[in-house]
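dude i think i finally got it to work??
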Amino acid sequence: MTLRAKRADREGAFSGNKAERAIIDIGSNTVRLVVYGGSMRAPTVLLNEKVTAQLGREIAETGRLADEAVEVAMRGLKRFVLLFDDLGIEDVETVATAAVRDAENGPDFVSAVRALGLDPQVISGEEEARLSAHGVLGAFPGAEGSVADLGGGSLELITIADGETGEATSLPLGTLRLPEYRGDKSADMRKSLEKALKKGGWGKPINAPLYLVGGTWRTMAVYAMQERGHPLTDPHGFELPFKDAVKLAESLANEDVEALKARDRISSMRAEKLPDAAVLLQSIMAKLQPEKLVFSSWGLREGLLYDGLPPSGRAQDPLLAGVAVFAAQRGAPPTLATRIAGWTVDAAPARRHGSERLRLAATMLALASMQIEPNLRHPLAVEWALHKRWIAIDAEGRAMLAAASMANGNNCEMPDELTALASDKALEEAITWGLAVRVARRIGARSRRSLQVSRLVLSDDGLVLRLAESHRDLFGIPTEKDMKLLANQLGVEFEVQIVADEYLHAVEAEPEPVK
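look at this
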């Protein structure tokens, strides 16, 4: 491979355009393929396809994978294998969970899958719990508490603390198995489930967050967000305090299935399972007494990716890793964003409400938004910030990303959806970030040289833009307007100082004010 080809290959991988890795998750409900690109710390999903085979639908009655379900699953798997060949994907990992490991004919199914050229690993319930927990640890660095992964055939429970997993168990309480616990009324079902949880060793309060993993839990979060009129749409990272979670579970346990099917973003399959899952949630909360629920879209598959990272990879910030790839695809490479964030830090640092990692992410998104047509720039920047699946960021942080991008486009009137998510002071701080990025862009059209011959500082005397004598003419009318905007935001006056090139960054420089 030539040097140019190697460089292009690296750039394609970094931008997220190159298919790097694939995972096939053979579950009790679905057989899912996900193809990833970009940074594996916060991967770009290039393809996410599922086949609803329901392999585990007859295990309770017959102990076997249904022939029809196997046929549907194999049809999907054959398609996946062809895609791997056409896309040139060599790194493929295939895992099978509850249905395959519990079924009498599970080994026969595994042999048939292996004949396709795949290497399926049937993982134990404890291993499934551990991988799901690693997905949570990857999505929520520093997370502590317990994880409940609800699949079609089983419920995995595991503790997490100090970046490690602890006690784990797998119980036959998946969504396909829950109807077995129904009694004449929901109270009977709840008692039966509480007994099953206690028998599995999970009957004591945890007094910590409970992280919920699995499609049915996420649909439950979507329902809760709709009921609350929540400004965000991605259920990942959505939180509910214990009391609110109790009310949600009670409401859903008594909800009409047909009414659920009529709702946007709730599929018929999920609608049919939500009431039973809500009773299960009631039982879990009654036993564990978590301080809050946190919904996670990262689970087993992301846990496999996280497992495969070296320590240095795990230590990466997932928010910055994800935003960097996204922004690079849109003409804002992370090297540029880092230079601009460094140039603006003296005048507009992260203060009480943000952090430097959040400010850098905001800088990346703000720069990327400027590469879009003006008529689309503002709405898309807000959409990216609020609704794209960013990792390791809360609702206020998302609002600050949006506010910074808006201010970078000279729009400082915050819409209601932002004021509902963040305090006025937090938004004001983010607006300052965005206006500072605007000045940096205007100084020299994003050129490296312009940032080397200038400096922006906030001192007791106000906002100061220092320019090297050789580049004094960079201070044009647009730059003057942007300096006024930033100074007004900071509540200070501004001035421009021209200094000799060699004294640009020296404190003792004797500047000449611009007349």
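The two ends are 57 Å apart (CA to CA).
im so relieved honestly
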